[in-house]
Amino acid sequence: MTDLTTPPTTSSEAARWVPGSHVLWRYKDNAGDGIHICRPVTVVQDTEELLAVWMAPGTECVKPVLADGTAVHREPLATRYTKPRALRRDRWFGTGVLKLARPAEPWSVWLFWDPGWQFKNWYVNLEEPRTRWAGGVDSEDHFLDISVRPDRTWQWHDEDEFAQAQRAGLMEAGKAREVRAAGHAAIDVIRSWGQPFSDNWQHWRPDPDWEIPPLPDDWDRTPTHVTS
């Protein structure tokens, strides 16, 4: 199994990763250029059509917290995006997450399970189309999300945070319209039951021999030769 110190299979920064490779799935700070979320993941599939990665239970990640250590979601919405923040290393709790991303789409689709591999739901995370680099992919979260139940019904999520992010100056009106339009495009895919929903990923299981990828000391390093 390759790890974060192992280069891609060719000399190109955009080379495809082989299954079992360890890479980083990162999100940029909405108020700046720094990385504020970093999750080591294992590559399941990497083709021109789809990047699929597995974030195992217990994975050490980096996440934002308020400067006093309070979890961001516990802060009242009115001040959630204006209070000073810090970064904290933590472990991913609960079951693992399978993340699916199609190139150039402004969202990724996450699959969640309850204990015992009881499928729970798909989750459409609206985000900036990911940029690839030798060690992983980078994006920027767009606050607004959509969940999809096993019976294919769906609903919007975090519309209050989406609105507050605009009030706090983290997203301009034009960008907000683009994000909402992207959400409607994702809903069109859900209604037609297109990929990746139709690909039966809910029946996928990780290789039992896979190790949990470590969080490297240079998790926030600046990538070179990024590609879409």
TrEMBL record:
It comes from the Bacteria. SUPFAM superfamilies: FomD-like. Residues 74-194 form the DUF402 domain. The keyword Transcription does not apply. Coiled coil: none annotated. Gene3D superfamilies: FomD-like. Keywords: Hydrolase. The keyword Hydrolase applies. InterPro entries: DUF402, FomD-like_sf, Ntdp-like. PANTHER family: PTHR39159, UPF0374 PROTEIN YGAC. This is DUF402 domain-containing protein. The lineage of its organism: Bacteria, Bacillati, Actinomycetota, Actinomycetes, Kitasatosporales.
